Amino acid sequence: MSQAIATSGQADDITAGLREVTEDWSADQEVFRHTHWGKAMMWIFLLSDTFIFSCFLTSYMTMRTSATMPWPNAAEVFALTIGGQSIPLILIAIMTFVLISSSGTMAMAVNFGYRRDRKKTAALMVATALFGAMFVGMQAFEWTKLIEEGVRPWGNPMGAPQFGASFFMITGFHGFHVTCGVIMLLIIAHKVFRGDYDRSGDYSAVEIGGLYWHFVDLVWVFIFAFFYLW
Amino acid sequence: MSHDTTSVPQADTAHDSGQQHPIGLYLKVWGYLFVLSAMSYAVDYFEVHGIMRWLLIVTFMLLKAGLIVSIFMHMAWERLSLVYAILVPPLVLLVLVRIMVYESDYIFWTRAIFMDGGG
């Protein structure tokens, strides 16, 4: 049997991979023993968070498809007038770029963490936190603008009343995640700069924090596509 | 995925360390994410509608999500047991989505037929 599969290198790789999975899960010991415990726990937390955000997005889908009133056009609702010209969705686009940039600096911070470059890691994490704070600031601006226009969780002047409920729930919960992330990043950056991880010889806190931050960016990718562009 | 499965398990500090990827890789992914975001914004800006709109949006979304998870979150270099433990469970969400599609269709027609479009 194994002879037949081994004819192709690709198939051989897959068998080896599956054998590894089977060994990890069937061995009478921890499955994730090759992984730092904090990293495994962060992944499991992120998995549960995936389900929370998916529930929000699924309920948004349900509300939108069951609404009998027309759904407000996101391109118009989130348009900004810059220089006398109305540009659709521009604030959301800027927010997207800011969050992606923060993910980029975070990825590099993790990389410098592996290289035990204390100062560069801390500086890049602070940059990430600044991008994050910028994102939350713009979100606060967006909320203020919509509230002034009369959007409430139970109704709005543009159309289906379910719009406000989905908007405040989804972006609010995401913004809360970003806020927590900024605080967490600043705490870890402070510890990096102080040299805590050089003394313990373990920089994995940077990587674990990074996982959380990338996840926040990942959720925004889905919110951007489903809520703002759809 | 070139881990030596026969080696004696190390203490948990010996996780898949190394992960020494050149900074250029991250800058490249960063660039791709920027381009993909700009393209999905362009879909809205140039008012593409109909099936083309959601086809493009979903494609760009999945590409961005894939890049973030595999490169930025290092999923591409994790052990398969962790990869499967994280990526397989969310698939059940497709069942939830399917159930709710039927449900919302039912609610929509209930409102339209029995509640004069309100409710």
3D architecture notes:
The complex is a heterodimer of chains A (230) and B (119). A two-stranded antiparallel ribbon of chain A has the order 1-2. Chain A has helices spanning 2-5, 9-26, 37-66, 74-77, 90-114, 118-148, 162-194, 196-200, 204-229, and strands at residues 80-82, 85-87. Helices cover 77% and strands 3% of the residues of chain A. Chain A is mostly helical and 230 residues long. Chain A has 2 domains: 1-34; 35-229, Up-down Bundle (Four Helix Bundle (Hemerythrin (Met), subunit A)), CATH 1.20.120. Chain B folds into 2 domains: 1-78; 88-119. Chain B has helices at 23-45, 51-72, 80-87, 93-114. In chain B, helix 1 (23-45) packs antiparallel against helix 2. The longest helix of chain B is centred in the first third of the chain and has 23 residues, at 23-45.
> What is the count of helical runs of chain B?
4
Write the element-wise H/E pattern of chain A from the N-terminal end onward: HHHHEEHHHHH
How many helices of chain A in DSSP terms? 9
Number of strands of chain A: 2
Helix content of chain A: over 70%
Mean pLDDT of chain B: 83
CATH fold annotation of the largest domain in chain A: Four Helix Bundle (Hemerythrin (Met), subunit A)
Order of helices and strands of chain B: HHHH
Task: Tell me the major beta sheet of chain A.
Answer: 2 strands, antiparallel
Low confidence ranges of chain A: none
Helix content of chain B: 55-70%
User: Oligomeric form of this entry?
Assistant: heterodimer
Radius of gyration computed on alpha carbons of chain A: 22 Å
Q: Give unreliable regions of chain B as ranges.
A: 1-16
Structural class of chain B: mainly alpha
Number of domains of chain B: 2
Number of domains of chain A: 2
Structural class of chain A: mainly alpha
